[in-house]
Amino acid sequence: MKPAPFTRHVPKTVDEVVIALAEYAPLDGRILAGGQSLVPIMAFRMARPTHLIDINEVDGLDRIAIDGDYLSIGARARHGAFHRPVIDGVLGHLLAFVASHIAHYPIRMRGTFCGSLAHADPSSEWCLVAATLGASLVLKSVRGERIVVAEDFLEGIMSTCLAEDEFLAEVRLPLLPADTKFGFYEFSRRAGDFAMAAALVTYRMVDGVIVDARVGIGGAEDRARRIGEAEAVLNGQAPSPDLFVAAGEAAAAAIEPLEDIQTTAEYRRDLVRAVTRRALERSLP
Questions:
Q1: What mean pLDDT comes out for the span 212-238?
Q2: pTM for the complete prediction?
Q3: Same fold, 64-174 and 181-282
């Protein structure tokens, strides 16, 4: 099938973007950046926006840079920009490792970091990163700018707190201390498929024990989120195979798993046990 008819608008500045949104959002206007999520559902006419506001010619929205104690990622920054570390240090390597697991190469060259968060698929690797690291998201409209944390931004399956006339202009990821360890693991039936469960963990070691543990789970619930129960198991303990198994058990017990035609709730719990343990195993040298 082909998309239903629409009008394309090509603003040149952020001000023009928010003005166009204010006018066309009530008429089912949508932002177009990479289009790797929106265009396919338009082709099947699952979405029929009458106006597309194409932000690909807006200067500055492809910016990726350190601002103070966080990494700023603009609305046009592609997944492919992270194939190699965009900054020195742990965060740059973490993002590069996660990016290699996103879909397929052609999609990574068009899809965008911010677009992935705005689409809010529970299996999104970038939603998992944002939720786990405590990202701040900059939302803009003609009414001004507001900043929300990832935990409040992600509301459910493909659901966010974005108002009709707002667009996600920037994501801010906190820089990670140099001694931070991280591990990431996701399970999908085939390479490039959506993850059925994924885990991202970060922590530091002080006097031989884990501190500042963060355990994020994606793909298994209606949104990516941190699992405090698993973090509590890890903090204050020395890394060991038994500890990692216990953290996986805690994560599995804490989730409210999705069910579908292919997976039962218990199957997804088993996946969460496995991906949490394996992410923790990958965090070690």
A1: 98
A2: 0.96
A3: no
H, E, C per residue of the chain: CCCCCCEEECCCCHHHHHHHHHHHHHHCEEEECCCCCHHHHHHCCCCCCCEEEECCCCCCCCCEEEECCEEEEECCCEHHHHCCCCCCCHHHHHHHHHHCCCCCHHHHCCCEHHHHHHHCCCCCHHHHHHHHHCCEEEEEECCEEEEEEHHHHEEECCEECCCCCCEEEEEEEECCCCCCEEEEEEECCCCCCCCCEEEEEEEEEECCEEEEEEEEEECCCCCCEECHHHHHHHCCCCCCHHHHHHHHHHHHHHCCCCCCCCCCHHHHHHHHHHHHHHHHHHCCC
CATH 1.20.120.450 assigned to domain 7-54? The reply is no
Question: Residue 112 pairs with which residues in a beta bridge?
Answer: 78
Q: Is the domain covering 181-282 a CATH 3.40.1030.10 domain?
A: no
Average pLDDT over residues 207-219: 98
Instruction: Give yes or no for residue 1 having a pLDDT over 80.
Output: no
Residue 220: pLDDT band (50, 70, 90) is very high
pLDDT tens profile 46-61: 889 999 999 999 999 9
> In which band, very low, low, confident or very high, does the pLDDT at 189 lie, cut at 50, 70 and 90?
confident
- pLDDT more than 70, % of the chain: 100
- Domain 64-174: give its CATH architecture: 2-Layer Sandwich (3.30)
Tell me the two tokens of residue 192. Answer: 């490039």
| Annotated domain spans of the chain | 7-54, 64-174, 181-282
Please give the pLDDT value at position 191: 83
